Amino acid sequence: LPFVSLAADPAVISPQDPTLLIGSSLVATCTVSPDFHLKAEDLYWTLNGRRLPAASYAALGPTTLSVALARLNGSKQQSGDNLVCHSRDGGILAGSCLYVGLPPEKPVNITCWSKNMKDLTCKWAPGTEGETFLHTNYTLKYKLRWYGRDNTCQEYHTAGPYSCHIPKDLALFTPYEIWVEASNRLGVAVSDVVMLDILDVVTTDPPSDVHVSRVGDLEDQLSVRWSSPPALKDFLFQAKYQIQYRVEDSSEWKVVDDVGNQTSCRLAGLRPGTVYFVQVRCNPFGIYGSKKGGIWSDWSNPTAASTPRSERAAGGCDPKGGEQNTTLRRELKQFFGWVKKHAYGCSNLGIKLYDQWRVWLQKSHKTRNQVGKEP
Amino acid sequence: GDSWGILTFLCAALCNLPALPALNCTEEPGAGQNIQKTYDLTRYLEHQLRTLAGTYLNYLGPPFNEPDFNPPRLAHAERVPSATVDLDLWRGLTDNARLAANYRAYSRLLCYLRALDGQTGTAELRHRLGHFCSSLQGLVLSIAGVMSSLGYPLPVGPSAPPGAPGAPNDFLKKMDDFWLLKELQTWLWRSAKDFNRLKKKVPPAVVTLRLETRGF
């Protein structure tokens, strides 16, 4: 395709790349270079590819055409609206990028957490409910309360678009002042300062080695055992634990809140012959005598177990009927029992393994569904 | 005895058999395979560029993302090397000149693309650009590999003038960005033809053999 290579800029637009508040008006002018032998009447304007009405034009001189834009809306794209001055045949003579938007509002809801007292991650929300239409930059700053130096966080977007991660050099026992600055072409807004002590916002890894097992032949109970998170084992703290469990086919979790400090718990009031998924999480509060609660860890990976079902209820009147494959499961259980008695070296085979397989199946089924949803 | 040795050796060379026990046989990656690899890379980049350009031009906004958009190329936009060349000139290029033109062009295009990276607004766009730059870097290295396997020296000199002036205003910068993507696209089309041509001229494998002197 032939293209025209030009030595000098054919025309000049004023203002060039202005920044404007939403709702303001603008008069822009296009002045053609004398080398081009074009007159004001040979020109027209477009904004984001759409021709502007001739009624808004005015010739300010033989080679200068102006256009009046009233009550501008927010920019269509963050790179700026494209206001272009054309010659009659459609050729582009000059252009100007209009940045129309709003100044940022104070960022709000700053929340932070420290993983095992080694780092600090903070997230916040932009103040504006709608958008500013302009590219807005966020900077997280922090300083120790009684020391002068401001520090700037460098690693952004670690926990979502409005987040930052401070990986090292954190001091304990002295509170930090933390704030977020939002800036764009139209101004700056600074959030309120949040003051926190690292020891008050500690979270940790989920408890490890979660085991769920039957309590003898009791049909309605399961026993849950776990270990305290290893990363904090050298620190003096109290731990609170929470357990949540659900029936295999349900998405409704039941939470056991008052587990306290122990590393074991018995779940009661369960349905016989049912597979349950169990998760545990930890809150390391009171680290080094901190009076505030800590932050709950993530839930541990689900562990599965099933309550026994007495063989006498083989008539199977289960009014809920929500259990799938009960016959299959019963048969499998009998099979495994037989295997244990008659086969050597198959001691790992058992109904427990089958239950773990069901957990894995549900998880991978979920992932497969998510993958399928990707564009 | 000895003549049989030579005959077997020649047979092996012709049939590309692996090293014979009595001889040291080293097989180089083969300029032919490198050329094929480079050709495949240009096709892959062409595909990647379609998505990247679509996203970037939407970010620039209309009229840049309109299909028939054809702005003038202003003087300073000529720093981007043009792929367009006279047909007879292109046909008459030596292998060395052909490869050197590709190498120089992509080295400079890579520099300009990298400069784009820091200024664009959305995180998604920056991520795509970063990925594309890595792939483009791979292409530059691949071309260098072909040149060295054919014994050509790499073109010397600054790939882009370090103090190159940027566009004087934001709109002209958008036009520069548009032309950068256009030239990248044209170069990838052209390179596919360049490497196709080179493929036909270079044999599939170059096997170099070192004969140990055994009194032949």
TrEMBL record, chain A:
Molecular function per GO: cytokine binding; cytokine receptor activity
InterPro entries: FN3_dom, FN3_sf, Growth/epo_recpt_lig-bind, Ig-like_dom, Ig-like_dom_sf, Ig-like_fold, Type-I_Cytokine_Rcpt
TM helices/strands, residue ranges: none
A Pfam family reported for this protein in Swiss-Prot or TrEMBL: fn3
Domain Ig-like span(s) in chain numbering: 2-85
Feature: compositional bias, Polar residues: 299-308
Gene3D superfamilies xref list: Immunoglobulins
Subcellular location: Secreted
Gene Ontology cellular component list: CRLF-CLCF1 complex; external side of plasma membrane; receptor complex
Biological processes per GO annotation: negative regulation of neuron apoptotic process
Keywords (A to Z) from UniProt: Disulfide bond, Glycoprotein, Immunoglobulin domain, Phosphoprotein, Receptor, Repeat, Secreted, Signal
Residue ranges constituting the Fibronectin type-III domain according to the UniProt record: 106-201, 206-310
Region (Disordered): 299-324
Top-rank taxon, per record: Eukaryota
Family per record: Belongs to the type I cytokine receptor family. Type 3 subfamily.
Protein name as catalogued: Cytokine receptor-like factor 1
Gene coding for it: Crlf1
TrEMBL record, chain B:
Keywords from the UniProt entry: Cytokine, Glycoprotein, Secreted, Signal
Keyword Signal among UniProt keywords: yes
Cell cycle in keyword set: no
Cellular component terms per the entry's GO annotation: CNTFR-CLCF1 complex; CRLF-CLCF1 complex; extracellular space
Record GO terms (molecular function): cytokine activity
Ranges annotated as spanning the membrane: none
InterPro entries: 4_helix_cytokine-like_core, PRF/CT
Subunit structure: Forms a heteromeric complex with cardiotrophin-like cytokine CRLF1/CLF-1; the CRLF1-CLCF1 complex is a ligand for the ciliary neurotrophic factor receptor/CNTFR. The CRLF1-CLCF1 heterodimer binds SORL1 (via N-terminal ectodomain); within this complex, the interaction is mediated predominantly by the CRLF1 moiety. The tripartite signaling complex formed by CRLF1, CLCF1 and CNTFR also binds SORL1.
Protein family membership: Belongs to the IL-6 superfamily.
Protein's name in the database: Cardiotrophin-like cytokine factor 1
Protein's organism: Urocolius indicus
